[in-house]
Amino acid sequence: MRSALILAAASLLSACAVVPEARPPMDTGAVEQPPAEVADNAASSGVRPGPPIESFPFLQADAEGALAAFRRSCDKILFRDDTSGLTTRLDWQGPCLAASNWSSDPALFFTSQFETAIVGEGEAFATGYFEPEILGSRTKAPGYEVPVYALPSDLERGWPAEIAESERTGRPPLGRYNEDGEFVRYYERSEIVAGALAGKVPTIAWAADPVEFFFLQIQGSGLLRQPDGSVMRIGYAGQNGREYVAIGQPMREQGLIGDGTQYPTSMQGLMGWLRDNPERADEIMNLNKSWIFFRELDTDGPLGSLEVPVYGRDSIAIDPKFVPYGAPVWLDMESDVADGLWVAQDTGGAIKGANRFDTFWGNGAQAREIAGGMSSSGTAYIFLPKGTLARLKR
């Protein structure tokens, strides 16, 4: 929307140009489920048929939202390759054509166009993210002094001198050229907070609360409520290339949240501790060296990594190596609120491997509460265009 709310990664530029990193997952303070052994993609993980699609208990509103989300995805998925190894562009032509003209029962659309598949063991783990709304201003003013930076012009990819030629494989890291012409890592959060970019990078807005803005950066997008009551939507433009650290884990290890404290292991607990301990808030937040840069959006929803607007309770972040973008996904989770139909339209920096998902809940107080507490296991079923499984067997 990241995400990323991302949000997530934008289009690739040149080999040495900035390629934004994906939005990290919501930091709930809970211990992340350890990743399963990672295969190359869904095809190499093993794919088998799921239950008959007619057996799924579709709800009218759920199916309507998923159909609208799928329809929005078609302009993108018909023109991009599927890295999961499951589908081709041609596979999506039939469902996309049907979606463009569909006017009857939305559940019937899915049962007529798709079949279900289980990737790997199908054992799913889901977190949640949302689009936060915080106080902000387009201009700096008393009470609005936290800079919302645009993407810096000096953020590039290159090889630091300390990395030997023989070790320079894959994409070069993000960084900048210093005054001596040497390529170095880009400024980390603590340096940016201290003013390293002040006067050097365009500031598109100013936030009122550094704690709220910290969590908006993790989400990758958000709404800034202006002093006049108007709303400015900002979305992910890029990242500084420094390490993302979910502060919940070190806070648990230091005994600041969790058992024996008044602060639960949830986003709300993390924020409560940071507000109650302002003398250490920067120290804790700076454990996360990552910094997110933003752009203003004129869309009616935040943009996911598929570059279409994402909507609450319809869109889900996936690892595109294991779920095709645009694919409907049925979750059956221990947390019943996440059960039902979603559409793969986003990704996230830690959403890696088969059956790892990040559910998007929109904006507002309820979305914030659900996303902040979402950490659930269950089973995932991927909806693939009919005939896909037979072709994969050949």
TrEMBL record:
<dbReference type="InterPro" id="IPR036908">
    <property type="entry name" value="RlpA-like_sf"/>
</dbReference>
<dbReference type="GO" id="GO:0019867">
    <property type="term" value="C:outer membrane"/>
</dbReference>
<keyword id="KW-0456">Lyase</keyword>
<keyword id="KW-0961">Cell wall biogenesis/degradation</keyword>
<dbReference type="InterPro" id="IPR026044">
    <property type="entry name" value="MltA"/>
</dbReference>
<dbReference type="Pfam" id="PF06725">
    <property type="entry name" value="3D"/>
</dbReference>
<dbReference type="Pfam" id="PF03562">
    <property type="entry name" value="MltA"/>
</dbReference>
<dbReference type="GO" id="GO:0009253">
    <property type="term" value="P:peptidoglycan catabolic process"/>
</dbReference>
<dbReference type="GO" id="GO:0008933">
    <property type="term" value="F:peptidoglycan lytic transglycosylase activity"/>
</dbReference>
<protein>
    <recommendedName>
        <fullName>peptidoglycan lytic exotransglycosylase</fullName>
        <ecNumber>4.2.2.n1</ecNumber>
    </recommendedName>
</protein>
<dbReference type="InterPro" id="IPR005300">
    <property type="entry name" value="MltA_B"/>
</dbReference>
<dbReference type="InterPro" id="IPR010611">
    <property type="entry name" value="3D_dom"/>
</dbReference>
<dbReference type="GO" id="GO:0009254">
    <property type="term" value="P:peptidoglycan turnover"/>
</dbReference>
<keyword id="KW-0732">Signal</keyword>
<dbReference type="GO" id="GO:0004553">
    <property type="term" value="F:hydrolase activity, hydrolyzing O-glycosyl compounds"/>
</dbReference>
<feature type="domain" description="Lytic transglycosylase MltA">
    <location>
        <begin position="133"/>
        <end position="295"/>
    </location>
</feature>
<dbReference type="GO" id="GO:0071555">
    <property type="term" value="P:cell wall organization"/>
</dbReference>
<feature type="signal peptide">
    <location>
        <begin position="1"/>
        <end position="17"/>
    </location>
</feature>
